[in-house]
Amino acid sequence: GGLLFLHLTALHRVGSNNPDGTDIPKTSPQMIPFHPYYTVKDLWFIFLCLTIFFYFVFFQPSFFLEPINNEPANPLRTPVHIVPEWYFLPFYAILRSVPHKLLGVVLMWLSMSILFFMPYLDRSPERSARKRPLKRWLTWAFFLNFILLGYVGMHLPDEPTPLGIRFVTLGRVLTVFYFAYFLTMPLWSRIEPIRNR
């Protein structure tokens, strides 16, 4: 709720940029007024999200739950695999990819906190990906990597993947790409040529 309020406040004060990613002065006739355009757009999206949310709350409340997490605890037996909630699966895969437990926890924390620094890592003068094909490809590769990390987090580390390698090995490769995407972003965002259309 607080982030939504900050977003609306910043949009109302600073304004919005166009799809090309270039800034437009607030006094320009090209600037779209906040109300009714952005108000209606935001309200429509809020109602859409609430509709999807209420569908799962009222009609499918256990859709995202893992059945093994609902079994009664047995103090004489440690469960083989405790599956976290679906939104923590990629970070859980990063945690398990490191053999040292403390380093795994540190990397899991870094994998979540590095997302907050992403706007500062992109050094390109062009903010839009429309004229930056390398950014588009790398962003899609990062998205696929994130989905695969979630898939790895669902399985036991020593199980073989359909490719024949263990899930922990695949998780290590995906973890390296996850951090390499962010660590190399200042470099490739500076040297990437901006295409003119």
Radius of gyration: 22 Å
Taking all residues together, what is the mean pLDDT? 86
Measured by DSSP, the beta-strand proportion falls in under 5%
- Taking the alpha carbons of the first and last residues, their distance comes to 39 Å
CATH superfamily of the largest domain: plastocyanin oxidoreductase
CATH architecture of the largest domain: Orthogonal Bundle
Question: What general outline do the C-alpha atoms trace?
Answer: globular
Q: How many discrete domains?
A: 2
Can you tell me the CATH class of the largest domain? Mainly Alpha
Order of helices and strands: HHHHHHH
Assembly status: single chain
Given as residue ranges, the uncertain stretches (5+ residues, pLDDT < 50) are none
Helix content: 55-70%
Number of strands: 0
What does the model show?
With 197 residues, the protein is mainly alpha-helical. The protein has 2 domains: 1-63; 75-197, Orthogonal Bundle (Helix Hairpins). It contains 7 helices and no strands. It has helices at 2-14, 34-58, 89-97, 101-113, 118-121, 133-153, 167-191. It starts with a helix and ends in a 6-residue tail after the last helix. The model has no long low-confidence stretch (mean pLDDT 86).
Q: What is this entry, summarized?
A:
The protein is mainly alpha-helical and 197 residues long. The protein has helices at residues 2-14, 34-58, 89-97, 101-113, 118-121, 133-153, 167-191.
